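Quick start: read one record
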Amino acid sequence: ALHGEMDEPQGASQFVAQHEDLKAADFADALHEMNDKRRIEVAGELQDDRLADVLQELPDDDQVQILSSLSRERAADVLEEMDPDDAADLLNELPEEQKEELLQLMEPDDAEDVRRLLEYEEDTAGSLMTTVPVILPPEATVAEALAHVRREELTPALASSIFVCRPPLETPTGKYLGVVHIQQLLRYPPPEPLGNIIDTDLEAVGDQANVSEVSRILATYNLNSLPVVNTEGRLVGAVTVDDVLDHLLPDDWRAQDDTRGLKRGDRRG
C-alpha cells in the first residue's frame, strides 16, 4: 500500500505526517523508491532526529544526495543527531572540502567523536564501533543501569550491555573493567553495585583488530556487542552485531528488493 501512495500527488508534509509511526527502515524504503525531486522534498520535511534515523537506513548514494540538498547548517545538525559511526561513514562519502566544512559546523563534542572514528583504517574494530555505548562506574547500581538501558533511542544491541569503567566515563574512558549483560540486571536486586556482578571473562578487542576477528568473537560467544579498547586499556567504543552485518553484506544490500522485502516481513508467508 505504501508504494502506491507514493505515486499520488500528495504534499511532502502530508506524506510525512501520515507516516510518522513508520519504522525508520521502512520509511527509508519508501524514500528510496521515490524519484530524486520527491525524495529531497520529503526528506526536507522531516525533523532533524527523524531524518538522521532514516538516513542511517538508506544506501550511500541516497544519503549523499539528501545531505547535499540541505543547507550546510542543517546538514551539520542532522549529522549531530546520527550515531557517530554512521555520521563518519556518511562523511567519508563526501569530498574532503565538504567533509571538513560540515565537521567545523558541528558541535565540537559531536565532531570530536566523529573525527576519532575517521582516523581508523577500514576493516578495523575502530572503524566499525560506536563511541557512545552505555558506560557506568562500578559503584552504579542495578537500578541505575536499568534506567540507562531503558532509554528509547538505544538500539537493542547497544542496550544489551553495560560497560563498566573507571572515570572518565566518556570514551576514551578510564580503565575498562568489564561488562554487565542486561539479563544479569534482571537477576539481581536493584541496590546491587555493578562492580559485584561484572563479567570479567569477556575480553575486549583492540581498536586495530580486524573485522574478521570481531565477527568470530561475536559468533563464538553469541554476543550482541563487544567492547573495544585502545593500547592503554581504555574503552574507546563498542562494536554491535548489526554494524558487523552491515559491513559483511554487499555494499548495495539496502537497495536489493529481496532483502528489503524480508526486512518488512515476507508478505507471501
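The radius of gyration is 20 Å.
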